[in-house]
Structure formats: C-alpha cells, structure tokens
Amino acid sequence: MLIFSAITWHKLPPNPVNGILGENVTLEWNFTLNSAKETLDYFELSRGDDKMIKYSDHTGVVWYKSGKGSVGLTRNGTSSFTLINLKRSDEKRYCCEVNTKSKWGSEGDFEKSCTELLLLGKTWGHLSLLHLLRFSFKA
C-alpha cells in the first residue's frame, strides 16, 4: 500500500526551541501542498491541549481564548507564530496542524508537527537572574 501525504514540511522549528522569560520567540513551520486536487482548509497552533490560533482562507485568523494577547501570526509563505512576552507557563509542547480539503469539497488530509519550548532566565553578561538572586541573599 502506497501512502501519499498532501503536505510536505520544508522548515520546522528546532526541537527544543529555547526562549527567554519576558522576551518573544518565533516558531516557524513552512509547508506546501503536494496535490493540485487539495487546497488548504486551515492550520492552527496549539499549546499542550489548548488551541491558540487558527488560520483559514475562508475565516482569516481566529484567536482562541488561550491565545489572545499571547501569540501573533505572520503568513508569508510560512506559518510563523510569535509567542509574546514569555512566561513560565508558556514552557510546553507546541504543535502546528495543517488540514487540507479536496477541491470537490470532501475531507482531505492533515499533518501535525510539534516542538517543545524550554525557557531560560534573562541574563546580564554571563550572570543569570538566578545567580544574582543567590548572590544577593548571601551578602
């Protein structure tokens, strides 16, 4: 049996992605559709089990409650999601799901790619905030 996917991933974010508390980080997935019989239905970003943002040519951008104010989308041949002002609670698994549909209206294919976000504390030179706090309590 030959299995054919309608989606090819060209660029995936590294796994894991390193972010810095209080800063922004961009997760980029680049994909193309392989079949002239398929069209993009939608793609969406989820954090853990929570959907954050969804894009469809028909509805445009839809933010879910968990994504409002914390994620932005750039659509320029890629799916680039920018996580804004990272908090410790953002340190989770992120997945981009791409769904297609047949040009004749029937259900198409879907693919999902995931990465883990690991957060680091802010640094000043070679000292992290954690080191500065430890030093101040010893003094």
The sequence of SSEs as H and E is EEEEEEEEEEEEH
Sheet with most strands: strand arrangement: 2-10-9-4-5-6
Major β-sheet annotation: 6 strands, mixed
CATH topology: Immunoglobulin-like
CATH architecture: Sandwich
CATH secondary-structure class:
Mainly Beta
Q: Which spans have pLDDT < 50 for at least 5 consecutive residues?
A: 125-139
If you compute it from the alpha carbons, what radius of gyration comes out, rounded to the nearest whole angstrom?
A: 19 Å
Distance between the termini: 69 Å
Count of helical stretches? 1
Total strands: the figure is: 12
What would the average pLDDT be, to the nearest integer?
82
Helix content: under 10%
- Envelope shape: elongated
Mind telling me the CATH superfamily name?
A: Immunoglobulins
Whole-number count of domains: 1
Structural class estimated from helices and strands: mainly beta
Strand content range? over 45%
